[in-house]
């Protein structure tokens, strides 16, 4: 994942900003008292990307991946809408409790840019994606960097068109969505009214995307490591913030680990899950890795 990559991550202030004032309000009014559900995963399961993660002789990468993690941020569905039988195969070969968090096709976000034809593409996408059944988590829509507030009417139409039975998170990348407080508040309120999650992105070169504003009781977080020793302290900070949100009533944590070079993503994920279990009382499986778990890996 190259988005937000910088040449000198040691020069970046990775401090997590304070919560948006409306975040505790959203959590307070949406908490149900249910036990928190947490899903942690990588973006891909390809052996080529996750080198040294798979034991020698592994025949089915997804089968093994899903034995170690409880979820995947499924980026492959951004590039194409797969045949129906592919979604059924993914569903059937993963264990009970596993969740897919698939990325919306780029036909909607980049090619059609939420226009009229994007709605038709949305229908085609959901027709097959729904075959994941109970293993379908939140669908993730990532808009193009140059999709700005001048497209507000398209956003309203799309959000109101979206079938509410499918949980959705949207990532807006154009800086003008957040530079103007009035524009940002309009966007937040639209998402909140339609029960759509506002994606948080932690990447080195785009700290403006750390707006820390919830629009529903769901933390959908895309963490992008920099292949640098700072990756671990950043994860420690996220543990502290998630614990704070949990105390306010957060019940859904969806945390996906990326890197500019994906090599260490399983290792970072394993470290993160260990810390979650220790400091927040969860009991998630810690993935096995064949790499050292030392924090000095990037020295």
UniProtKB/TrEMBL annotation:
- Kindly give the SUPFAM superfamilies that the UniProt entry links to this protein: TM1631-like
Q: Which residues form the signal peptide?
A: none
An example of a Pfam family matching this protein is: DUF72
Gene3D superfamilies, alphabetically? Answer: Protein of unknown function UPF0759 (3.20.20.410)
Q: Where is this region: Disordered?
A: 1-20
Q: Could you tell me which PANTHER family the record lists for this protein?
A: DUF72 DOMAIN-CONTAINING PROTEIN, UNCHARACTERIZED PROTEIN YECE
Q: What is this protein called?
A: DUF72 domain-containing protein
């Amino acid at each position: 994942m190259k988005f937000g990559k910088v040449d000198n991550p040691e020069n970046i202030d990775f401090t997590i900003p304070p919560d948006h004032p409306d975040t505790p309000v959203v959590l307070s009014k949406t908490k149900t008292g249910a036990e928190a559900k947490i899903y942690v995963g990588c973006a891909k399961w390809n052996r080529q990307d996750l080198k040294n993660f798979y034991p020698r002789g592994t025949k089915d990468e997804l089968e093994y991946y899903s034995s170690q993690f409880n979820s995947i941020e499924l980026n492959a569905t951004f590039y194409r809408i797969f045949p129906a039988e592919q979604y059924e195969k993914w569903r059937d070969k993963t264990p009970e409790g596993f969740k897919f968090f698939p990325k919306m096709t780029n036909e909607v976000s980049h090619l059609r840019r939420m226009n009229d034809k994007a709605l038709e593409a949305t229908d085609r996408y959901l027709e097959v994606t729904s075959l994941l059944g109970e293993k379908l988590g939140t669908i993730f829509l990532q808009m193009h960097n140059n999709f700005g507030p001048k497209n507000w009417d398209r956003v309203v139409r799309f959000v109101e068109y979206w079938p509410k039975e499918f949980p959705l998170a949207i990532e807006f990348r154009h800086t003008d969505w957040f530079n103007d407080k009035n524009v940002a508040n309009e966007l937040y309120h639209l998402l909140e009214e339609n029960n759509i999650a506002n994606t948080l992105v932690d990447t080195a070169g785009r700290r403006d995307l750390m707006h820390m504003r919830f629009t529903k009781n769901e933390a959908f977080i895309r963490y992008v490591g920099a292949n640098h020793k700072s990756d671990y302290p950043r994860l420690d900070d996220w543990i502290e913030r998630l614990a704070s949100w949990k105390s306010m009533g957060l019940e859904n944590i969806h945390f996906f680990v990326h890197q500019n070079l994906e090599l260490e993503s399983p290792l970072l994920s394993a470290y993160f899950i260990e810390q979650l279990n220790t400091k927040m009382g969860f009991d998630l499986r810690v993935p096995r890795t064949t790499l050292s778990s030392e924090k000095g890996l990037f020295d």
